[in-house]
Amino acid sequence: MTSPVLVALDYADTIDALALARRLSPELCRLKVGKELFTRGGPQLVERLQELGFEIFLDLKFHDIPNTVAGAVRAAADLGVWMVNVHAGGGRRMMEAAAEALAGRSRRPLLIAVTVLTSMTDEDLRELGYSEGAEARVQKLAALTRDSGLDGVVCSALEAPGLRASCGKDFCLVTPGIRLAGDAAGDQRRVVTPADALANGADYLVIGRSITGAGDPLAVLQQICSDIA
Ligand SMILES: O=c1ccn([C@@H]2O[C@H](COP(=O)(O)O)[C@@H](O)[C@H]2O)c(=O)[nH]1
């Protein structure tokens, strides 16, 4: 599997999610299961997607006290997922507890932390009381994530060049907010095309509605894969 594409299965119905998965191919993408679909389908749905041959990014963005997050990350690892995440805003002790929960496993998921959601702007951050903009805040949270022993971060591909420079080539950069040229941004604010995201240094591209909302999702996925090959 060399494709960097992670298709976000944001469905309200497990039947629709499984139907889309059956139209796609594990050769072309991994699948991301987020809060809505997991709340509908639970671990059984993740297992069914894995049985179809897909590696799963369990995008539940855990953010709680260290003991609780450690337990949640352990449960995700027991499910056999490929990647799991927490919120960097939970702080060093929370992230260290999450990393520690996976230590010593022969096979463990990649553990990454969300920095600043790609739906947020500098103005949104100001409203929350942060004086720095998204770029600076992402840098700060990524440094804390790396120092806490995690594998990488979720960020916008706009921040990828700076993070490559500061965090090195082995730090995993997972980038949602991906839009094909001409697609509506919707609720996303820091958006980048697939080719530009990879050129900026992203490792993985999270793509939801540009694929799932298409008339022929497989054709769009194939086009993206051939454009970035
Ligand atoms: O900062 C973040 C973190 C996670 N996401 C998730 O990625 C997908 C994006 O879907 P699109 O339809 O391509 O906008 C979605 O599941 C989000 O929960 C994010 O967008 N930004």
Chart the SSEs and their pairings.
Blueprint: E1 5-8, H1 14-23, E2 30-33, H2 35-51, E3 56-62, H3 66-79, E4 83-87, H4 92-102, E5 110-114, H5 122-127, H6 134-147, E6 152-154, H7 160-167, E7 172-175, H8 194-200, E8 204-207, H9 209-212, H10 217-228
Bound molecules: ligand LLZGTKA7.
Residues 8, 10, 34, 114, 117-118, 154, 176-178, 188, 206-209 line the site of the ligand O=c1ccn([C@@H]2O[C@H](COP(=O)(O)O)[C@@H](O)[C@H]2O)c(=O)[nH]1.
Enzyme class: lyase
GO cellular component, one term: cytosol
GO molecular function, one term: orotidine-5'-phosphate decarboxylase activity
Q: What features would you describe in this structure?
A:
- This protein is an alpha/beta fold and 229 residues long.
- The chain has a single domain (5-228), classed as Alpha-Beta Barrel (TIM Barrel).
- 45% of the residues lie in helices and 16% in strands.
- It has helices at 14-23, 35-51, 66-79, 92-102, 122-127, 134-147, 160-167, 194-200, 209-212, 217-228; strands spanning 5-8, 30-33, 56-62, 83-87, 110-114, 152-154, 172-175, 204-207.
- The chain has an eight-stranded parallel barrel, surrounded by six helices.
- Strand 3, helix 3 and strand 4 form a beta-alpha-beta unit.
- Helix 1 (14-23) crosses helix 2 (35-51) and helix 6 runs parallel beside helix 7.
- The mean pLDDT is 97.
- Ligand LLZGTKA7 binds at residues 8, 10, 34, 114, 117-118, 154, 176-178, 188, 206-209.
- It is an enzyme of class 4 (lyase).
- Its EC number is 4.1.1.23.
- InterPro entries: Aldolase_TIM, OMPdecase, OMPdecase_AS, OMPdecase_bac, OMPdeCOase_dom, RibuloseP-bd_barrel.
